[in-house]
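Subject: Interface between my chains keeps coming out wrong

I've been trying for a while to get a sensible model of this assembly. When I model each chain on its own everything looks fine, but I need the whole thing in one frame so I can look at the contacts. Pasting all components below, labels as-is. Any help appreciated, I'm running out of ideas.
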Amino acid sequence: MNLSLLIIMPLITALAVVFCRTMGGIRWVSLAGVSVQLLLSFGLLALYWRERAAGNGAAMLFEYSHAWLPSWNIRYHVGVDGISVAMILLTAVVMEAAILVSWSIKPMGKEYFILLHFLSAGAYGFFLSLDLFTVFFFLEVSVIPKFMLIGIWGSGRNHYSAMKLALMLMGGSALVFVGLVGLYYSVGGLHGFDWVAIGQMHLPAEVQRRFFPFLFLGFGIFTALFPFHTWVPDGHSSAPTAVSMFLAGVSMKLGGYGCLRVAVFLMPVAAKEYSPVIILLATIAILYGAFATMMQSDLKYINAYSSVSHCGFILLGIGMLTRTAITGAVMQMISHGLMTALFFAAIGMIYDRTHTRLVGQLGGLLKVMPFISTVFVFAGLCSLGLPGLSGFVAEITVFMGSWQRAGELYRLATILACASIVVTAVYILRATGQTIMGPVKVASYNGLGDATWNERLAGVLLGACIIAIGVAPFWLSDLLEPGVRAIMDHAGNAFGIK
Amino acid sequence: MPNYAYIVLVPLLPLAAFVVLGLFGRRYFRGASGSVGTLAVLVSTGLSVWTAYRYFFVDGIIGDRNADGGYRQVIALKAAWLSFSPGLSIDMSVILDPISVMMIVVVSLVSLMVHIFSLGYMKGESRYGTYFAFLGLFTFSMLGLVLSGNIFEMYIFWELVGCSSFLLIGFYFDRPTAVAAAKKAFIVTRFADLGFLIGILILSFHAETLDFRTLINRLIEPTSQLAGITTASFLGISLLSWGLFLVFVGGAGKSALFPLHVWLPDAMEGPTPVSALIHAATMVVAGVYLVARLYPVYAYSDPAVLRVVLYVGVLSAFLAAIIACTQTDIKRVLAYSTMSQIGYMMLALGTFHPAGEATTLGFTASMFHLFTHAFFKALLFLCAGVIIHRMHSNEMKDMGGLRKLLPLTHGCFLIACLAIAGIPPFSGFFSKEDILLAAWHADKLVYGIALLTSGVTAFYMFRLYFSIFWARPMREAGGHHGEAPLTMKLPLVVLALGAVLAGFIPFSRLVTYDGMPQAAHGVGVFAVAPVTLAVIGILTASYLYRKEGGRPAKFAAALGGLYRLAYHKFYIDEVYSFITKKIIFNLIGKPAAWIDRNIVDGLMNVVAAATAGISAGIKGLQSGKVQDYALYFFAGIAGLTILFIYLYT
Amino acid sequence: MSQVPLSHILMLSAALFFIGMYGLFTRRNMITMLMSVELILNSVNINFVAFNKYLYPDRLEGVFFTLFVIAIAAAEAAVAIAIIINLYRNFQSIDVEDADEMKF
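Reply #2:
Try treating it as a single job with all components included. I did that and got this:
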């Protein structure tokens, strides 16, 4: 399977959109392109399973490598393993839902869809790359489209939010770049940026200690590492619906993936040494993010702060450095991506109809728009970790994994993280109770319509994926297991814990 | 080894009803939704009863049936669901032992009765299909909970039960009180579930398994490799005790024991059949079931944990009984009565002590009471449903003299009251007497309080009875519709039969702590005290409430502050409200949001502002004036000159 | 009679140089700035001639250089006046602060 197809497909779709003349043509071409990507992703999953079942135990499958800048040993090198396949599926599903939800965007629809396709191309490339420079390249590809999408089609303080998001993410990228260049020169330039090759070396502890903070912090900013998470509330809330879905659903996972695959995998000794700090920051993000969410009165801010809190689980799992915790972190990446995309979609649908996101001005929507309300409640229940939905699976895996690390501090962090489920229940139920339940707040709401066909399809797609993971998590954990095992094996004794 | 694999149908049929009715009920089934749901639960009930027959009388027995044969545990099926590491995984496994088989009979039977009752009660309701879908979800969750063979699997169903309860309490969602009650129920039980979760983490980490049977075996083994759990301690209490205590906290929240009981009275906002099913007979006993499921570990560990169980149980029983004496809403009285009876069940479990008479009588007594309580409490709630349906009000002051108007309800209500008061030969007498006997052997003070509470129980139940059916001149039968449709009368009759006959089931032979039958002790002189107190309670209630008069008001005034305290439910709700609003919201939530907005984000904004400031400062250099540029030019040359002189001399 | 010490002449030319620089930086009238530039150039001339006479009396390079500088100063004065006239035509002023369009 040629993995570059996944990167080329969005670019071809963008190109096709350029040549479309009518808005309808643009929409259907985009939908067709994104659907092809979804099919390709499922195809990739199937082929991957077939390869593994046939006994192929290689670390990375479907590798392809081509020299790009030979003088610096930069290659265009792509390949997948279980973790990458899962993330690619996530991107494809979220993009499909995002395009469906953006059906009636105006003005300048053509530019909007083109930018969305560039976003997804960046994400696909990031998850496929096995060369560190290419990883950085694709990380950067998506920052400028985000800036433009939020700045032009956003709402509220969108100029401020777009600028803040772009600058903070670029700051993160700058830190990542410093780390990468440091790595490059530390391995003597021989292997250059080749992730696989560096992954087989054992870097000296001093080098690891020096560059780990740069890489972890840089990628961490993408995943809302406290205290650099403040771009999340403003950025997500000012963005148009599809961009919020993509930002929270996929973009924040770029950071988690980078932290895991680049920082922790390549530098396990440093990871172990810095893990108390990571765990501290992650626990703060989880609890403090949850408490801050409780006091918000704008639905999008509620969801954005809750993303900060949930992404704290990802960092907690990575920080704990046990096999189960890391598996839980990856599961949380996927589960949270789906859930928050669904939640933002529901909020967007509500906003399109009522033109308000303030909880105080909404009420009784269950009577007026039952489908959207059900989707909202469904997403809320997934957020608070109801069994049968994906959020539960991810959270308990992180909890079980975190408890396995002995030590008073780590146990305390686990207990605090567990305590956040109560606070999450409080803010989700407050939001649900005030917007969905209760009497209809404003009489004019009674005439509002329910979800249109495209919105229903988006909701059902995301909901089905959430249920699939929630009811039958074994297929996901089996998919992720070899990748996590590779990380643990490479770390060997460095982690010092199971 | 007989094959019980079909048992998986018992929870799955109601789940299928949920899915079908949830997706298609509104458009395709409409009025027939009730029948679909009822049919599914009917088949489940049939399968449960048949399983009970097979298990207790045919297959489950080890050894000689008539002599010392006990009941063994059967794992009906097991499938890995989520694997954390080899040996530590969440499996979907079904366990059949005396308590689980008993529970599936109770749950499915009561659920069936509630389904049939709802066919009549909820007729004409706009979201008829959704109601039955939620009932199906609840039944599935509860059956799954009692059949769980893996502790995390039980947690999964535990949470699902909580969610179904939330959906059903908030069924009338356009009433703000219902929404608030649903939220409260979910959040209070969530808080308790946090304890359950941490307890699971502790226990499973040390036992390295999540499977109940293996977990129990490993934790009670004195020479096992788990030295860690009994020797390690936190704040002076062993980790095993902490784990068990936290699990008990989870159970206490779901079972509405003091002080986590505040959600139960508010949960009466839901439709009455829901209260009958969830908040009387099934969900609220989940906590008792959990402690019973882990009972060998509780028994083995530090007796302090069981002491806590004992005291919390008796305190809840007593407090709830006192509060119930002052409430005026029928359903609230019944809610507090439920809390009180669950207190009895918990205190019975807490009466274990390693040596001495009747060490494990408490276990059997608790399960027996759970069984009988399901019948008469569900019956009470369904009767209340008929009354509320007819009188369109929940308050006792709107009732009175309903004997002729609702004759069948009257009879069933009376039977249930007699059962709950513990009058022989009704079922409640037998189960309560066992509990009191167990308490007597454990702790005399607890016995005293429990005995007193049984008297108070009789008092408030008959206060309720007399206020509804006597107190005022009789209202004549007649009017445009009869007492109730058949669908609402049939469950009353069935449950009343249960309330009468259930006491004669030889529980000590069937359901015991280790599966071995215990000698059934006869009803002896021990029964005199509770029955006497109960009769005194009934007579007092009759004196005060049988005829309408000023006697109760005078009595209440005589009690003064005590009465007020009980009427306001000991101000516990106010305490909670204070803690959440003033402390958590104002002292934690608001500062967190403020800090994030102003300090953390402010830091980023300061960085940006500083950068902009520096930029503004520097750009002044580009003044456009030739002389300034000439000056910079000269300054540069002067600097270079000095530099070169300094470097080269 | 003893010669005037070299240092006196150098001090004179240095003084003229810095007076010229001061005038260049602080005068607003462009003609006056031009005069200051002439001062600078002339001070350099004095320097060259002095060094030539005192240090290398039998050579003439310094003097030749001075002649070149005088010629170039004259040419440059002509060009500078031409620029000033053009600036006057555009800005209606020979104040150097009025020609400030090449700024941020």
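Reply #3:
Confirming on my end. The mean pLDDT of chain A is 90.
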